[in-house]
Amino acid sequence: MSRTQDAALRLMIVDDSPEAAEAIVSTLRNAGIAVRPLRPASADEFTAMLAAQPVDLLVAQVDSTVLPLATVVQQVTATGKDMPVLALCDAIDQDTWVQAIGAGARTVSPREPAPLLLALVRDAWTDLEARRAQRRLEARLRETERRCDALIDSSRDPIAYVHEGMHIRANQAYLEMFGYDEFEDIEGMSLLDMVAPQHVEEFRQLLKSLAQGEPPPPRHELQARDIDGNVFPAAMEFIQAQYEGEPCVQVVIRRQELDPELAQEIEELRQRDQATGLYNRATFLHALEDAVEAAARGSARHGLMLVEPDHYQHLLADIGLDSADDLLASAASRLTAAAEGLDAVAARFGEHTLALLVRNTDHAGTEAAANRVLAAFAAELFEIGARSSVITASIGAVQVGEKIASVSQVLAKATEAMASASATGGNRFELFDPSAVDRAEEEHIQAWVTRLRDALDHQNFVLHYQPVISLQGDTGAVYEAFLRLKGADGELIKPLSFLQIAEEHGLLWEIDHYVVGRAIAVIGERIRANRPTTLLVKVSQASLADDSLTRYIGEQLLAHGVPGEYLVLELAEAKVFTHLKAAQEFAAAAARLDCRIALENFGAGLDSFQLLAHLKPNMLKIDPGFTQDLTGNADNQTRVREIAAKARELGIQTMADFISDAATMSVLFGTGVDYVSGNFLAPSGPDMSYDFE
Question: Degrees (nearest 5) of the Cα angle 287, 293, 295?
């Protein structure tokens, strides 16, 4: 998709059911999409939100009794905004489809299966972003065309645009060359009329070949004639172009006042860097643009290398600034020697940066060319005036193909790779290849899967514990357990690094079993040491699918002699919304074991309180978004106070975590929150040594 990963989808949901709307939000969030949801509860609220809030996508219930789909689409259309409407129904039949599409919906989706709805939302959002990007590009194109017109008009080079052999645009220098006053005098005139009679037939054949899409010659010499029939020697240069959206040919015509051979020599000098003899930056960029364009069409692959002598500033201090050109000339000769036999273009790209474009080569060919360049630099001493020195090089290479077919991207990746090679000691190259990145990502994921499997088999997971402190005078020991993975170097890795991979590869339920089993064993040890302790343990949605975890909990409680009341199982609010029936069954099974249930990240949903009508937990962990900057945010204070009051009314305890200062503690105490935790109070660690008295 074209968005950055952290871009939020501004989603409006028109649905009579708050639970169904919440399920949509949870489905998107579970898929890693940041969502800023809106749900109007009435027609007036819908109109107000539509006018006041920026919205990317609207999901609307087909058979809504509050806001009919036709009304929704009509009001969206009236705003003039590009806002796709996705129609939602319980099941798709022909009548529903015709009704929704006829009303103006972009597409129709059933509520289930959730992955289908997710895919359609992604598609609609991606298409919207593509249209927005196209509009931005069109605006830039118009601005670019305006600037190009100004540049063409002010250019001293005679320039014309020709379509099917006819003039459609020409600048003042072109008109003056041929003796015309206004463009209207030659508009629609054939370019053949500007050619001396003896060259007309030859030039006609050239125009035919251009019309058939054949590449133009870089230069074509002939005799031209002006309005008075005067003939003069001229050279034409052709570039395929577009004018006002139509394909055409840009023609630059120059008088041949000089000897042709001398003119060719001058042109050659214009393209070269005088110090190294290589092509200069401008000439090289033209070659790179052609290569990138070919790669974008999928017709070629190329390798680009940026090369710099290592420790350049130290070398300059040693050999003197006056020898800098000699140093670059020697480096250029090594580069040229290394490129011998290759279809390559070498250039001086920067002050002390050389470039090599190896055409029509794959990853292995680019890698081999880079090794040749490294060897050419390191093979022999550099002779620089009266001095000699060993000089190595750092190379940043890029494999140019369809996946990276932009000059700016190619140069950015090459520069980044070259800097990395230099920073790690030099005399090496780094090659960026998008296909290799894909392969590396697959290997990275597989390595993680193997590592997680090994950790489960050999007990390489550990638990850390953070004190949970009562604000209401309870002195019982309560800790929250956090999973950590032992790293090879003794470092402990937090779950955010691997939980997504574990979920995708079906390992979450096994990790849940390990965490719960280890927690129960620790509680048992604490009870036997006469230090009874309550542990809060996170459980993933993977364990809601069947009763295997609750059966395992029952077995472990019995085996370690632990009363179930000491184990609090945390479920994420968003996961409960999308797995409500399974969560209800899980909570009921946990209650039979006297275990308690906590809902974490509570309050982040569209209507979190509605969830409490279907599932009554023992504790609510308030979403950290409401406790950040709590002292300076009146809305968050009001929300926390509402949650605490509602929980007290229902006999549910509340907890706030990630507390970072005393002022926040004071506000939470005033709202009636029961428990708090955070590094301000005590960090997590492998031991349970906090004094709760």
Answer: 105
More confident residue, 403 or 692: 692
Distance, in Å, from the CA atom of 379 to the CA atom of 310, rounded to the nearest integer, reads 15
Most confident listed range (69-83, 271-285, 549-563): 549-563
CB-facing half-sphere around the CA of 591: CA atoms within 13 A: 11
Whole-number Å distance between alpha carbons of 667 and 91: 48
Q: What is the pTM of this model?
A: 0.49
Q: Is the peptide bond before 54 cis (omega within 30 degrees of 0)?
A: no
Q: What mean pLDDT is reported for the chain?
A: 86
Q: Which of 96-105, 136-145, 539-548 has the lowest mean pLDDT?
A: 136-145
How far is residue 351 from each of residues 134, 286, 289, 327, measured CA to CA in Å?
Answer: 37, 19, 21, 11
Query: What pLDDT, in 10s, does the model give residues 570-606?
Result: 998 888 877 888 899 999 999 999 999 999 989 877 6
Tell me the pLDDT tens digit for each residue of 246-281: 788 888 888 876 555 665 666 666 788 888 889 998
Q: What residues contact residue 229 under an 8 Å CB cut-off, 6+ apart?
A: none
Non-local CB neighbours of 493 within 8 Å, separated by 6+ positions: 484, 485, 486, 487
Residue in the block written with tokens 């029952």 = 554
Q: Which amino acid is located at 22 in the chain?
A: E
Among 127-141, 195-209, 272-286, which stretch is predicted with the lowest mean pLDDT?
127-141
Tokens linked to 491: 């470092």
Q: Is 6 helix (H, G, I), strand (E, B) or coil?
A: coil
580 phi, psi to nearest 5 deg: -60, -50
Q: What is the pLDDT of residue 405?
A: 64
Distances in Å between the alpha carbon of 179 and those of 172, 225, 290? 10, 10, 35
**Tokens 């050659």 sit at which residue?**
268
Largest interatomic CA distance in the chain: 113
pLDDT of 596? 96
Per the structure block, which two tokens stand in for 377?
């630099």
Q: Which residues, other chains included, contact 193 with Cβ-Cβ below 8 Å and sequence gap of 6+?
A: none
What is the spatial distance between Cα 2 and Cα 606, in angstroms, rounded to a whole number?
Answer: 27
The CB-side HSE value for 655 (13 A sphere, CA atoms) comes to: 26
For the residues 437-461, what does the mean pLDDT come to?
80
| Run of H or E including 586 | helix 580-592
Q: Report how far residue 459's alpha carbon sits from residue 66's, in angstroms, rounded to the nearest whole number.
A: 55
At residue 272, the 3 state secondary structure works out as: strand
pLDDT the model gives residue 580 = 84
Find residue 239's DSSP bridge partners.
250
* Cβ partners under 8 Å of residue 92, min gap 6: 108, 109, 110
* CA nearest to 431, candidates 393, 401, 397, 394: 397
Distances (CA, A) of 54 to 9, 12, 460, 581: 10, 10, 48, 34
Would you state the structure tokens that stand for residue 692, as one six-digit string? 């709760």
Rounded-to-integer distance, Cα 294 and Cα 153, Å: 30
User: What count of other Cβ atoms lies within 10 Å of the Cβ of residue 18?
Assistant: 17
Give the bridge partners for 654, in sequence order.
620
Euclidean distance between CA atoms 543 and 296, whole angstroms: 46
For 43, other C-beta atoms within 10 Å of its C-beta total 14
